[in-house]
Amino acid sequence: MLTTKDYLRSILAIIVFFVMLIIATPLILFLLIITLGRASNFVVESIAPVIVKPVFWVSGISFNIELHADSITAPAVFIINHTSTLDVLTILALGLPKIRYVAKWEFQYNPIFFLLGRLTGQIFIQRKKSEEAIARLQNTYERIQKKQLSVIMAPEGSRSHPGVIGPFKKGPFHMAMDLDYSIVPIYFEGNRELSKGNSMLTQAGKLTAHIHEQIDVSDWTEGNLEKHIIQVRQRYLKLHS
């Protein structure tokens, strides 16, 4: 249960997040302009985690990354469990190499997110329009492969689902097959417990991002795709248990 201290911390953390964005935006824009966009990777790998760090500190949250592999596979399609508004901050805090975020279209309604997202090459999709979302993803393939970028997506698509781990959509897995990328599962531990549902309020505590071994999709086909997706989801359910 949230305490008065949690409420105050959460409100202050929200303020800190937007203040950090306002401070960082001119610097990011300057870097992108003078490098003709080539600083995009530096922004997502180095600046984004710096923006999030004081937000976690104010919230009383300890964030850790545990790597359950010899190294982080890249480029790859990274997938996450999506159950909390804290997931957005946790994704930014990861600082994965040459990563691009697949985010919902509505994020662009915030002018800062729109500006930074567009200039750094993030991918915005309309999840309620599945055909348009798929087409949007496919249109990015050439750029992703040419620049050897990784992408990060939530197979559940939305936080609004019953249960701990919602049904997995096929989009991320199709993308991995089309790009000939491995899938790298990331499990966020603690996000759901500290901040439930759509709330921006959070408790103090510990968050851990578990980065697991890559999953090779070279032998995946349309015929066995559903089976593999079920197996991957079962891994997430096992991680949560």
Description:
- The structure is a single chain.
- It is built from nine helices and seven strands; from the N terminus they run ααββαβαβααβαβαβα.
- α2 crosses α3 (86-94).
- It has a seven-stranded mixed sheet with strand order 1-7-6-2-5-3-4, with helices on both faces.
- The protein has helices at 4-34, 40-59, 86-94, 111-119, 130-139, 141-146, 171-179, 191-194, 225-240; strands at residues 61-67, 76-80, 99-104, 123-125, 150-153, 182-189, 205-211.
- The chain is an alpha/beta fold and 241 residues long.
Through-space gap between termini: 22 Å
How many helices?
9
Strand fraction band? 15-25%
CATH top level label: Alpha Beta
**CATH topology label:** Glycerol-3-phosphate (1)-acyltransferase
Give me the secondary-structure category: alpha/beta
Compute the CA-based radius of gyration. Answer: 18 Å
Biggest sheet, spatial arrangement of strands: 1-7-6-2-5-3-4
Largest sheet: 7 strands, mixed
